[in-house]
Amino acid sequence: MISRAVAAAVAAGVAGGVHRALRARPHQRWQRTNYAGRAVDLYAGPATVLGAAAGAAVLPLPPRARTAAVLAVLAAGGCGAYDDLAGADDPRRGFRAHLTALRHGEVTSGAVKLFGIGAAGLAAGALLKDRPVDRILGGVVIAGAAHLVNLTDVRPGAATATVLALGVPGLVRGGLAAAPLGAVAAVAADERAERTMIGDTGAHALGAAVGVAIVAANGRAALAAHAAGVVAAAVCGGRISGLAQALSGR
């Protein structure tokens, strides 16, 4: 438990420090107007990416597990950041819209995010598991968890609450969940107060981090169940977003 507490503290310290540093030197590209018309920044996104990666890196785990976590977090966060910046004015939402555009020869930021996070999930799954079936299931869970958290990012605090709900049970079986939980803790108050947003950058990275924790702690049967769950969430994406919006109470 001590090592998990250290990882959470490192994640929170890095995320909080990065967030303060970025807010001290604001840039217009990272500013947004939220659903209520308030001006907010997206700095909680890169802050939580770096925080979760740092927290995972200090855990006393096999090198493959640490590498899988850092890879998944940085890749998912990078793809999310690209979508936050390059896709800010793109009205298209959902897998179907981006795949349709791809069939017509247009590579959208959403398509980059879809395939980039999918590839990172499979790579992380290959590092965490030995058998091909388990590796594929692991990749689905990691990429699917990233997408699931992003689906719930519809109101302040909704995505961070999802990370907490998914990550806290994981602390019982493994330490990897400590990293995203620590990173979330550093920005949760500011996000809830509508001063910042984790955006696609943070939502995908934190979701991927939780997915890695799930994969590392479970065998094939549980992985199959989790994979089915995240696939169902992707299919019912609109309903998941609507439920998250209702539960957020905003």
Explained architecture:
It comes from Streptomyces sp. 900116325. This is UDP-N-acetylmuramyl pentapeptide phosphotransferase/UDP-N-acetylglucosamine-1-phosphate transferase. This protein starts with a helix and ends with a helix. By secondary structure, it is mainly α. The longest helix is centred in the first third of the chain and has 24 residues. The protein has a two-stranded antiparallel sheet. The model has no long low-confidence stretch (mean pLDDT 87). 73% of the residues lie in helices and 2% in strands. It has one domain.
Biggest beta sheet attributes: 2 strands, antiparallel
How many E strands? 2
Spatial gap, N to C terminus: 36 Å
- The residue fraction in helices comes out at over 70%
Number of domains: 1
| Beta-strand percentage range | under 5%
Protein name: UDP-N-acetylmuramyl pentapeptide phosphotransferase/UDP-N-acetylglucosamine-1-phosphate transferase
